[in-house]
Amino acid sequence: LPRQALEHLRAVQNEEEQAVLRRLGVVPPEGQRKIGDITEKVEEYLDSGAGCCFLNHKPVADMVGDALRHFDGHRYQLHSYVIMPNHLHVLVTPSEQYSLSSILHSWKSFTANRANTLLERTGMEFWQRESYDHLVRDEDDYANIYEYIRYNPVKAGLVSEPEEWPYLWPKM
Fold this sequence. Notes:
Blueprint: H1 3-24, H2 39-47, H3 58-70, E1 76-83, E2 88-94, H4 100-118, H5 139-155, E3 168-169
Antiparallel strand pairs: 1-2, 1-3
Helix pairs in contact: 3-4
């Protein structure tokens, strides 16, 4: 997500939160504000195809998919992923000897270097520094995340059925 877009979403959310608090007659202590969840707005922005869509380039998307599958069964168990034009979603269980942060760092480092080479870019960031993770709490949570990943290209209006999207794994 471009920095300006994220800053805009945060500013809009802050204004909306402040308006609600004013209507309720609640005044937070000076310098403190409620930090809300802007995940839904970020997802809408990403699904609209905004920002750099480097993952829309077949060689880049193929390389990222290969990288995600590379250590499957060793460093982690890869359950599912979808590579969208400007972001991706991955459902993974790290092996005991690897942390999620070390796996993410490995993916981001390798794929950023390779993608920038493929795109003939130098000295530019490829991935955002932060990432959004979610602890899967039970089977229902797992099923919801799995379906969210599968249907993200449909939700974004890119295809009518998940299997039509070339960068969905596994195919059913």
